[in-house]
Amino acid sequence: KIQELRTNKGGERKKKKIQELRTNKGGERKKKKIQELRTSITWQPNITDIAACLLVKDENRRLPEWLAYHYTVLPLRHLVVAVDPGSSMSPLSILQRWNNTSEMNISVWSDRDYTFFPLDSKLPLDLSETELGIRIHRTRQNHFISKCLSHHRDNGRQWVVLVDADEYILFNRHVKNENRALRHHACEEDFKVMETEQKLPMPPPYKQGTSDRRKLPVVGEKTIAQYLTDEAYNKPWYSQSCITMPRILVAEGDDEQDAINKAVPIGFNATHYETMKYRHHGNVNGVEGNRWGKVIIDVRRIDKRIIGTRISNVHRPISSKCQKARVCFKKALLKVNHYLSSYDEYIQKSDVRRNEKEFQKKRSKLFGKLGRSDDDARPWLQKFVDNIGIESAHALTTGLKDLSSDKGINPLTTFNLNL
Q1: pTM of the model
Q2: Which of 51, 114, 367, 377 could covalently link to 275 via disulfide, CB atoms 3.0 to 4.6 Å apart?
Q3: Cα(first)–Cα(last) distance of the chain, in Å?
Q4: Burial level of 285, CB count in 10 A (0-12/13-18/19+)?
Q5: CA 377 to each of CA 72, 73, 78, 284, 383: distance values in angstroms, whole numbers, following the listed order
Q6: At what angle do helices 27-42 and 11-23 cross, to 10 degrees?
Q7: Least confident of 145-159, 200-214, 348-362
Q8: Region 278-295 average pLDDT
Q9: Distance of alpha carbon 369 from the chain centroid
Q10: CB of 33 within 8 A of CB of 366?
Q11: Which of 143, 393, 371 is nearest to 253 (CA)?
Q12: Span 266-294, mean pLDDT?
């Protein structure tokens, strides 16, 4: 019997069982069993790509690397970009570089595409300018996420990631001496899935298990979509439709140039890539430095009415489906590297929350006895070159330092098109 199941020769036996159940009396219990058998025959996990929702404001310098990285690692194939009307630059020319890449489908939205009008928002009138700016940003973000998740669901997509342009998703591989740093960190209880969760079909016998973090692949060996397909019957992917990923603040350290240039393809300047030149982080469980996690959501398994209601926040958008935003690092299978740029680049972005005090506060959390260097993302660039060729890779990622001056287009009036 085991050999039959392994070689996928159980189809005829299941069909015969269905016929037997049909001809016998059995009521609701047997009808349920028939449905389980039907779905176990027809459903096969096959995740070929991943979608994303991205809200940008003056991110032209980062956007080429972010697109190329996630195109390779996820692979990202369906992207909705919302442009904050306060942006001083347009990302259109960068996104148009991907227009000839038939595999990448990019939609660009403005406020009107997800029905957000700041003047209509019910915000207190006695807020300071800084607090008002933060409230408007978060409200805009929640409106966008709700509409974007519904858009991907309506178009038949499955897993959707919610991260920012300075955040990169990768496998959370176990590293040497990690247990020493994490031994004092007690993880909370596992998230309890709500009863309304839409389950996948029953897994075949001997296929149900739990994904093993010690067996995670290296970036470039396997895409995240391929990994999700292989692990589809295992927990947490089988039992949860929203997975929270810990976010790790990563920044520049006192590195030798050889360490920065390691594994970078010939002809590419490592100092132009955040994933290459920024390698250091502090305590992975330090909530003050890393802040809250981000999520990857299987929108196919969530009722449209739930997605269409008000989103809580980007860190835990659907409270009945998503774990607490502070997730246990040593149990997480995916993580998000959050790159902190230099002060000049940090302050260049138009954001009321950014100032020298906030920057120094972030930097102060990066180093210490629990900190280490991280090169987990490094193989992506060589894989990108191998996939599309060196000329195309140059065309899509070079000139990163010069893109921050790409101005002259009004995002509010231009960005409601499909590339």
Answers
A1: 0.81
A2: 377
A3: 51
A4: buried
A5: 11, 9, 22, 16, 11
A6: 160
A7: 348-362
A8: 85
A9: 29
A10: no
A11: 371
A12: 88
